[in-house]
């Protein structure tokens, strides 16, 4: 299983790297682990790194939206970083505007914004 | 083909002029080009100049909404400038309130707001 998603604490945020070949089962696990860690570690934000995603479909779009929704309910702001241009175009064409998330071009930008928050 | 849309870098924003007779194919190309340039040139904003649009329909409204959605996902703020009063009336009548966009009466106003951001 190459595509294990990882969760790491960076400053006051949890950095989640989503792999290209993430499966349905892994996502359910990720949701559990992430929500528990947000509550336990009292983080201000969740940063979803999707730079390894080359193609998105509605499944991946829904995954991002759900993770953002969970984080918001647990009082953490979600930033999506590393989105490829083609991915942005596809998400919008699929009608997925990800209203709950903020985007930042890089991890540095996301951390800067979280420091200000 | 008279109505070629242009993209120019102005300060820290990309100025996109949308022509009246823009076609579906041109829009797809514009989405690709614009998204790649936002990511590459690390701009803070996208300014959609629609002053040459005399009439809008749902197609053009959707184009504006999609371009704004893509820009937002790539961490750039969208400003719509040069909207004619009749166009504003039509967009609202069509139920298109363009929630992802900010509007400014002129390019100068948009640039002033982007400098502050």
Summarize the structure.
Two copies of one chain form a homodimer. Chain A is built from four helices and five strands, in the order ββαβαβαβα.
How are the secondary structure elements laid out?
The structure is a homodimer of 117-residue chains.
Chain A: E1 6-10, E2 13-17, H1 24-41, E3 45-49, H2 58-73, E4 77-81, H3 85-93, E5 101-104, H4 107-116
Parallel strand pairs in A: 2-3, 3-4, 4-5
Antiparallel strand pairs in A: 1-2
Domain STAS (chains A, B): 3-114
Organism (chains A, B): Thioclava sediminum
Protein name (chains A, B): UDP-glucose 6-dehydrogenase
The CATH architecture designation of chain A is 2-Layer Sandwich
The neighbouring-strand order within the major sheet of chain A is 1-2-3-4-5
Structural class of chain A: alpha/beta
Indicate how many domains the architecture of chain A comprises: 1
Order of helices and strands of chain A: EEHEHEHEH
* Count of alpha and pi helical runs of chain A: 4
Count of DSSP strands of chain A: 5
The portion of residues assigned to helices of chain A is: 40-55%
C-alpha Rg of chain A, in Å?
13 Å
InterPro entries (chains A, B): Bact_StressResp_Reg, STAS_dom, STAS_dom_sf
Pfam family, one (chains A, B): STAS
Organism (chains A, B): Thioclava sediminum
Domain STAS (chains A, B): 3-114
């Amino acid at each position: 299983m190459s595509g294990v998603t990882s969760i790491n604490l960076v400053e006051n945020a949890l950095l989640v790297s989503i792999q290209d070949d993430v499966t349905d089962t892994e996502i359910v696990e990720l949701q559990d682990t992430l929500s528990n860690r947000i509550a336990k570690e009292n983080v201000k934000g969740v940063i979803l790194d999707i730079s390894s995603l080359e193609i998105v479909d509605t499944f991946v779009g829904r995954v991002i939206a759900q993770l953002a929704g969970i984080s918001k309910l647990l009082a953490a702001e979600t930033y999506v970083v590393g989105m490829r241009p083609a991915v942005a175009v596809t998400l919008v064409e699929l009608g997925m505007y990800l209203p709950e998330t903020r985007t930042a071009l890089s991890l540095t930008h996301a951390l800067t914004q979280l420091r200000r928050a």
